[in-house]
Description:
The structure holds 4 protein chains of 4 kinds. Chain A contains 5 helices and no strands. Chain A is mainly α. In chain D, a hairpin with a 2-residue loop joins strand 1 (62-68) and strand 2 (71-75). In chain D, helix 4 (111-129) packs parallel to helix 10 (252-268) and helix 14 (325-356) packs antiparallel against helix 15. Chains in contact: A-B, A-C, B-C, C-D. Chains A and B meet through helix 2, helix 3 and helix 4 of A and helix 1, helix 2, helix 3, helix 4 and helix 6 of B.
Amino acid sequence: MKDLVGLFPYWAVALLMMTGLYIVIAQGNLVKKLIGLGIFQVSVFVLYIAMGVVSGGTPPILETGFVTYSNPLPSVLILTAIVVGVATLAVGLALAVRIRESFGTVEEDELLPLTEPEAPADAEPHA
Amino acid sequence: MIGLLAALAAIAVAVAFMRDLLVVAMLSSIFSFACCALFVLFDAPDVAFTEACIGAGVSTVLTLAALRLTGRQERRSGRPATAIAAMVATVCGLALVYGSLDLPRFGDPRAPANGHVAPHYLTRSEGEIGIPNVVTSVLGSYRGYDTLGETVVVFTAALGVLLLIGGAQARPGKRGEAPARADRDVVLRAIATLFVPMTLFLAPYVQFHGAYSPGGGFQAGAILGGALILYGLVFGVERLNRLVPEAVLRVIATLGVLTYGGTGLVTLALGKGFLDYDAFGTRPVGQQIGLTVIELGVFMTVGAVMTLLFQRFAGRGEA
Amino acid sequence: MSVLDHAPVLVVVLPLLTAPIIALLRSARVAGVATFVVAALDAALAFVLFARTLDGSVISYAMGGWAPPIGIEYRIDLLSAVMACLTSFSAALVAWFLPVSIAPEVTPGDRPRLFAAFLLCLAGLTGMVVTGDLFNVFVFLEISSLATYVLIAAGAGRDRRALTAAFDYLILGAVGATFVVIGIAFLYVVTGTLNMADLGNRLPLAGKRAGVVGASFLFVGLALKTAMMPLHRWLPNAYTFAPAAVTTFLAMTATKVALYLMIRLAVLVFGTPDEIGRINFATVLPPIGLVMLIAGSALAVVSADLKRLLAFSSIANLGLMLVALGLGGAAGIAAALVNLINHAVIKGGMFATVAGIVHRRGSSRMDSLAGLSREMPFAFVFLMIGGMGLIGVPLTAGFVSKLLVVKTAFDLGQTMIAAGVLLSSLISVVYVWRIVEACMIAKPAKPGRRHDVHPIFAAPMALLGVGTLALGIEGGPLLDVATRIAAALTGGAS
Amino acid sequence: MSGAGLMLAALALPLATALLIALVGERRPDLREAVTLAGATALAITVALMIAGFDSATAAPLVLATLVPGFSLTLKAEPIGLVFAGVASGLWILNSLYSIGYMRAEHAPRQTRFYACFALALSAAMAIALSGNLATLFVAYEILTLVTYPLVVHWQTEGAIEGARRYLAYLLATSLVPFMAALVWTWVAAGTLDFTPGGILAGKVSAALMPVLLGLYAYGVGKAALMPLHGWLPAAMVAPTPVSALLHAVAVVKAGVFTLLKIAVYIFGLPTMAAAGDWLVWVAGGSVIAASLIAMTKDDLKARLAYSTVAQLALVTLAVALGEPLAIAAGVLQLVMHAWGKITLFFGAGAIQIATHKKKLSEIAGIGAQMPLLIVSFLGGALSVAGLPPFGGMWPKYLLLEAAAGRHMVLLVVCLGLSTLLTLGYLLPVVITALFRKPRDEDPHALPDTGHEPSPLPLLALLPPVITAAGCILLFLAAPAILAFIAPAIGLETLP
């Protein structure tokens, strides 16, 4: 049972991830979905970094006098993933703004009747 | 560490049930900052730095700008999806827990991940690249191609936002823009005048010092972006647009990507592999030259794109 | 080192770096021509790769000069080369008529940026196909996905529902990508490496449970990208409301690259071709494939828009590929690959024709197709060739694909699967005949005079139409390449 | 010209004709008709040359293309194929002549599409006739279905669309599922699909599964219109009469039974077929009787002829199921005789419709006076289909009786006799009503005369029925020659 305590961080992160996923699927507001997505992704980053930790190690900056360093690779991967998260968020928000302007709402329940597949195509009322 | 994780969980649950989107945006920003604290705790300062600038800073500003256009209140009507969502979340959660049983214990030095590729970076990067910050050396050189991909992702995001709510289609919005009026927000303006130039100096420092201390292209770009956004927030978007017009920003962003990609093509021309900085000189020096140039490329792109995004979102409802 | 030695990296970097330049161009015309030139060059490079790997050799290209497990490695075997050819050739074909096709939907000022997004999508897809590094796959997956969301949203000029379609795909795509990242996390932690080949050798030694969970998350993430049945909701709207030229490109490449990844991971990283960790392909895929085949075709029968009909037919054909993959072994993988290429050619030809029709008549709804056989005979002929291909009429590529799957099923004694495939191909007769009756027999409101497709659509339509017939009449060479790939994959993996 | 050259010509000629017709188009109908006739005659000559120069030793296979290794398009001349090719090419000329007369009289729209599809159908029929393996036959079979769809849906009225939809549903459903399943099963079991004398399935499939495979083939070949799956034939009556003639006599239905014959002789091999075919004998026999009874109830002339075709085809299926060389010979002869007999009946029915615009049996009382020669040739055709001595139709029934007697199947002999009587039962009333009954004005279901007096029968519509009726008599004499021609291929030692 003792070593199960060592896994506790992973389970906490798993809980965070699943809350984020819940928000993405359950909530109807498009912006809320994006925020939920943000939370889901940030918690995945925490999972990566938690895996790279070496107890008793220092940040991977080479200094005389230090021997054990924590794993640099997860940090590199997460640097990339953070920017991906922001990029997706930016495009998502731009889409949400356009949807608000075209359909007048960003609530999924109100959008469904407006986006019926059979409805005839009406071009987006733009300039 | 336990306390931080508990706080994070509380914030996440709160976000799920709050209705006022402004509060939700703020909560998600706090969530990111708490994660930054956790990253520092987990010996990953670089990631903490980036998460603070980009994750908490820029994305919150963008969310708020978008919320201004799409309305604050979430109109909650009967959502059948909550049952499905709960079921999917629990199933994935259990799968994660089941999978974690095999993972090496938290912080276990003998973990396979610490035994195979990582030691090479830690031991040999001193000789091969010669800069103390191993994360920057891995980011720039060992896995430099990933970072090129990364810069292009940022550029694609800018491209996308320009296409969706771009300048060519800027349309008069319904809601007026409320620039900080000179008479009332003295406090804001005072701090801003003090703060903005300081951060503008901080950005190049972080960029060029990235080889020795946590930092690098991404972080520097985010800080530059943050500074300009602060200026835009306080002094109004028109003045920001006049300071850094959109066309210039687009050119800088493109130049950033081309600098990065160009370095790779130059190494090809000099007979080495793509992005193999040994083409610029003997082992440690050539790598450092290469690293600095590509960090500059990333700095230009990320900085320009962050500002561009803010301009587009803030400018949308006005003009 | 001549330029051709750098073909592996140039095939990705060329579109990647020319896209920003094109985004800056002022005039839409110059940007359009530049896009086509870049796509054509890319196709040439891909063909060089194909020629070099034809004899079974594997090109390994270390990025930044660092040896594989340390740095990122491009590992190109015949399968990657064929897929690179597929993405770049379809990009070249679509780039040819893209400027004309999206003219009514995108204002001239925005077109250069849209072409840039198109090239980035190409770069992303090709990047995913040639890389040998797991995290690199995720990075290029993100590039292509982001570009795809933007390309789909560009359809808003004609139909505002393109925005919601793009948003739905963004949410599902982002969740899928995050699942892929979680999968990579689990696999990295128990093996310590990100290089696929290296991962393949070290995974059996690692903990079984982490491997299984990592594999399942990867599998779900990729399943979302291949629009497997429960997770397919984004595909019909995305294909219907995106501009027709974009749909043509997506139909030929997007889901197929994700399927390629599934094959690559199933074989390379998880060793046995029939098993991902504990998820046994043979038990998981055929049922899902058959459900997709039947449900996809059934939904196609009731759709009111030609593009939606073809989108559901794409889902059905994907089901056929999954059934072939599920049959497992070298024969199964070969059949899946032949299916993949044939379907790309058939569906590409049909969507290109639809692009021509939409360009001329403004809408692709079924009831607006009346009188097509009289007014646009050229388009009608190629629509028919594609339709016959979908049914699987002999002398078309569709027949060869169906025949291979059924023969493999019979060889392995899976008569029930063979019967399922044959029965569901009946439903495809129904929805193809809806198109025939809509075009040939329905009476147009006012019989218009003959006003055929804009000449620029002629070349891609003709090329793909003739391709459908040629692959149907001489299926040998493609099957030979596919068998060689399958043998290399299954043989090499042990 | 070498054998291979002739075969290629037989395939290419109709294709070229179709292309030329499409090019000439609506602008110059006369030139278009001339092209059709020229193409038809050229094809007939090519097939005649092939039959004359046929020598089983030198008949080498000609591989056109290999779709997939082991699944190639191969042409190979062999006696049964040449007989079918001869029938199809011969009747194409007559049918073209008749079509010109009929379509002009009916002022039908879209005639270019009609003649072009007709030529394509013939090309597909030639490919079926000359196929060297089951793969080529399957490919040509599918194309024949698709090419005849525009012909069936020609009038494009609501009824035509509905009928064509059923036509296509039956034929595509049966060929896409059971036929393809059987084909792949055979390919996997026997390793090859080539037509080899003596069959390739002997011992390859377990005795228990052989009838199942035979069932898949019997119901897979939808064009043989075996009962329960015969629905498409009456549904195809919505087509113009020349198309019905094509369907019933020239190509489509003939292709179906021809496929069954080739499968029996070259895939199963006669001994295996005899063992596996018992259930099919009874199904086919039942089908003959049932179809004949339904035919008697049909008031519409063309529907009556449709069910007559279902009955006559079931006879061929019966012959195939018996698995005796004698029965196979009867099957081949039935294929030829039924073609000539049934086409006469259809020409007659079509001519009646042109002249008097009447389609129902009850309406044609007393029209014999206007067109005595037509009704006489109709009578000739009817007798040949029924199988009475002076006409060719007698040979297949006689050989079938002999084969049944040889197998001591008394019930079968009774059934065959009964079928001849029933055929007379539903064909002769047509002739009797037309000739001897007087048109009673107070006839309750006589349609009020729709004002236009019956138009004179165009010569082009009268000549073909007479020629085909004469042909039936000629064939009565030529039957032994045909038998001698196909005997070596089906292992028939003694000529009856």
